[in-house]
Amino acid sequence: MENQKQQLNKRKHKPATAPYIIITKLEDVINLVSNSNYSDFTTDILKNRRFIKVDAFLAMNTLRFLNLITDDRKPTEQMKKIGLKGDSRKEAFKEVIQNAYKKLFDIVEKPQDLPFNELFNEIKTQYNLSGRIARQAVPVFLKMAEFAGLIEEGSVISRKRKSKTDKKTVQKRKTTTQPFDHTNESSFGEGIENKNKKCISENLTEKWDLIMRSRKALDTDVREKATKLMEALEKLNKDND
Known about the structure:
The structure is a single chain. The protein has helices spanning 2-12, 23-34, 43-47, 53-65, 77-81, 86-100, 102-107, 116-126, 131-147, 188-240. It is an all-alpha fold and 241 residues long. The protein has two domains: 11-147; 195-241. Helix 6 (86-100) packs antiparallel against helix 9 (131-147) and helix 8 crosses helix 9. The longest helix is centred in the last third of the chain and has 53 residues, at 188-240.
């Protein structure tokens, strides 16, 4: 029983590793603790803010590492300071980051100014992180430096994590074809329709002209034959007389 308590106590006071939470969640949790007053800060608070379990765990680890909450999840004086505005807020963050990343600042005077690869190597070495974790920890450090005014605001780009439950969106290929528009006389569809009407009209006109010409020719032929017939009848009548 005593051994279990010792192990639990040891696990409870185990130093938090350098945070590697995604930047959007870091911003969310910092905004949350900056604008609220909690007597206890628990994962339930984060879950109510739509933090999934892993993000809630990483957020709590981040707050402990930055000394914004104690191992008992109680807010510290530092948490109250980062709720200030203007330069006072930046000074509070500067104190937070220099204390939390003391190992890094002890080795490098201005680690925030290092090229990415050098900063990656230092964080990986000083905090004994894997390459994958160190790669995620670098943006967190830089974002905190941004909060402290040590680097230009907007230097670290936030990217939202895509949910597994989100439907995949398919980007439609753009085409130059205009939609069919019945109200636009210059539209492609109506142009075809007008062209078809014109063709039909021309065809009907040609056929009608042909019929009329044929009828005229027929009428002329009939009249000629009728005239000849009448002449023959008149001649026959005269002969009979």
